[in-house]
Amino acid sequence: MPSPMASDSARCKFLFHSYLLRSLYGIKSPQDLTKTHHHDTYPAISPKKPALSQAGRSVLITGGGGGIGFEIARSFAKAGASRVIIVGRRSSVLDAAAVKLREEFKDSSTEFIARQGDIGDDASISSLWDFLHSQNIFVRVLVLNAAHVTPWGPDTLKMDKRELMEGFDINVGGNFVMMVKFVNQPLRPTGQQLNLIYVSTAGIQMIPAPNQTPYTTSKAAITALVGRIADEHPVEDIQIISYHPGTLYSEGASKYVDKSLLKWDEMALPADYAVWAASPEASWLHGKFVWAHWDVDELKADKDISKLMEQEKGFLRVAVQGLTEVSLERFMNKPE
């Protein structure tokens, strides 16, 4: 058995090597992780790419009636998904979105289903999955896009507990129930791989963030939870990827932010990225949190990033900044 001193020495070498990689190759900033920082879609993530085909798959997208959710639905249709199910709270918005999708893809075989549902209501979630089962629909790909974003306030300690917990009940609790229902579908064939895509936010990295509570804190919590679930389930069982979609000028954003304030990304970037993330090409990022801006080919080809992913289990995961992951073995009472 190696001595504690030898273990500490190896740990120091590992930490120093990680520090060198991070320092020498300038990969602390998300903007620098790949040489190319995309703001619009590009060929490697095109839903028309044969390797990204979603043929034969049913895809469910929460918050699918507008904004990025609607664009993700379009991208999966372009990728040949057999069925695209959009879910949201407002029936009128969903129905209008379904009409647009059916018109745009009238020459394709993709079926579009609009279903009212509230991920903040457990009974509504159960009703949704009961309906899908009654229609003999097995969902292969789940895109968790819906989120609770308010209230906007600078002082957490002036908030009401109800306001705080509503964000966690929806963004964490509701998405958790959706994942449980997804994984335990009665119609899931034995051994059938699933694909889970979580639309997160770069807000979980902002310190301080303009809207810290409850949005970014609850989003950080669910992004961490999704990563932990990936630890428990191999990629062959459920391929899980969380990603920051970009800075997007949607209906929701327009209520709070002046369009001239920020540099906005094109919706096609995160929409097509979701399709790529649900393909075998993205399997090596199982459990990771990534940015849609990063060039997927450059990311995979970078040997230094590959080293970090091999050596640091916490790399591209929600964790404590400045520290690598820690193993339970470090706290075990082992015989000398």
UniProtKB/TrEMBL annotation:
The keyword Oxidoreductase applies. GO terms for molecular function: oxidoreductase activity. Gene3D superfamilies: NAD(P)-binding Rossmann-like Domain (3.40.50.720). Pfam families: adh_short. Keywords: NADP, Oxidoreductase. Belongs to the short-chain dehydrogenases/reductases (SDR) family. This is Short-chain dehydrogenase/reductase. It comes from Lentinula guzmanii.
